[in-house]
Amino acid sequence: MKNNVTRDKLIDSGAELISQQGYNATGINAVLKACGVPKGSFYHYFSSKEDFGLAVIERFAATYDETLVALLEDGETAPLERLKRYFAAGRDHMHECDHATGCLIGNLGQELSGQSDTFRDALNLVLQRWEQRFVRCLQDAQARGDIASHTAPEALASFILTGWEGAILRAKTLKSVEPMEQFETILFQQVLVRPSP
Q: Of 98, 124, 170, 184, which one's alpha carbon is 20 to 30 angstroms from that of 176?
């Protein structure tokens, strides 16, 4: 149990540092210093910095997946309301971090996809899992007649995730949630519309 606690501490400290300054700028020594763990412990749990980075990605993804389940798969809430809660949570996070960190997976995708096939593949798998959460929510909305069914939910899910990640990036550069609000407004007013009578 103690071993897992140390490993978890390394991953959590690493995730926080990486979210603030990026993967390449985060050294192993900084992670060790942040969590007060001796250097030998790092290599006991991780074979390399890349191995560590992959563990950070998987931990963040697993934790965030729980959030997505709670927000997007709540059968007691109408599907479009679930989506609105998801967007509201994203804006709240952006306010809390003062527009500094955004989405760890999105940040790493921008930083590492061109540098490492291993990271690119791992990040792509995470985004695919997230898309499937959106797909199920959108299928529910189409089944209820809340949105038109002429566009495949898979295509809509991809559009939403891609657009939202872009809006997060713009929110960081502008230090404002306005791009996120604009994306949501256009999405609900022009894309996710009820079928024509």
A: 124
Give the model confidence (pLDDT) of 39-75 as tens digits: 788 888 899 899 999 999 999 999 889 999 999 999 9
- Say if 1-46 and 48-191 have the same CATH topology: no
- Give the long-range contacts of residues 177-183, CB within 8 A, separation 24 or more: 177/91, 177/94, 177/95, 177/99, 180/87, 180/90, 180/91, 180/94, 181/91
Distance (Å, rounded) from C-alpha 112 to C-alpha 57?
12
Average pLDDT by consecutive 10-residue portion of the chain (197 residues)? 76 88 88 85 88 92 91 94 95 83 81 88 92 96 94 96 92 92 96 85
**Segments making up each domain of the chain, as ranges:** 1-46, 48-191
* 50, 117 Cβ separation under 8 angstroms: no
The C-alpha atoms of residue 99 and residue 180 are separated, in whole angstroms, by 12
* Beta carbons within 10 angstroms of residue 33's beta carbon: 13
* Half-sphere CA count of 157, side-chain side, radius 13 A: 20
175: CB partners within 8 A, 6+ apart = 98, 99
1-46 homologous superfamily: Homeodomain-like (1.10.10.60)
Query: DSSP letters along 136-176, please?
Result: HHHHHHHHTTSS-SSS-HHHHHHHHHHHHHHHHHHHHHHTS
**What's the alpha-carbon Rg for the chain, to the nearest Å?**
19
CATH class given for the domain over 48-191: mainly alpha
